[in-house]
């Protein structure tokens, strides 16, 4: 009888220990509710990539439940959205040396701002304004049809210029990236 109670006690202890551990996101990104993708483009033979999580609308509204207006947003889901560039860039007037950066946005009903931040490797909600390299206005346009899943893309304009596009719901915000 004593062994039975000991087994029950050990089992209960193990259950409590498992439940007490904070839940971490799945290590396998394919098992997350927001899939992760990479957008990339090559300018003057050098690669530019953005790694990000792609949340779905699921009936929610951009500017309200998702990417709330007036608050810095992680520009995706999960880990901070990472820009890696092998070449010096000019992003909307901001000089961005080759390297790794985090991209945040400041959504609004009017003009959105792209925030280029020097801190990297953090969870997306760990924003440190003191690490900003700069902020730039993004051009906002209406899309002809709704985009359910957040999408980052590049629209190549020439050998040394590309538009960075963020599409979601009925909105596209974009900014020019040029080889500096």
Commentary on this structure:
By secondary structure, the chain is mainly β. The chain is 11% helix and 47% strand. It contains one helix and nine strands. A nine-stranded antiparallel sheet has the order 1-2-3-6-7-8-9-4-5, with no helix packed on it. A hairpin with a 5-residue loop joins strand 6 (99-106) and strand 7. The longest helix has 19 residues, at 2-20. The protein starts with a helix and ends with a strand. Mean pLDDT is 85; it is low at 12-26.
In a nutshell, what does this entry contain?
The chain has 180 residues and is mainly beta. 11% of the residues lie in helices and 47% in strands.
**What is the rounded distance between the termini?**
77 Å
How many H/I helices? 1
Rg (CA only): 21 Å
Q: Uncertain runs with pLDDT below 50, 5 residues or more? A: 12-26
Q: How much of the sequence is in beta strands?
A: over 45%
Topology (elements, then pairings):
Blueprint: H1 2-20, E1 36-43, E2 46-53, E3 81-85, E4 89-91, E5 94-96, E6 99-106, E7 112-117, E8 132-156, E9 161-179
Antiparallel strand pairs: 1-2, 2-3, 3-6, 4-5, 4-9, 6-7, 7-8, 8-9
List descriptors.
180 residues; mainly beta; 9-stranded antiparallel sheet; 1 helix; 9 strands
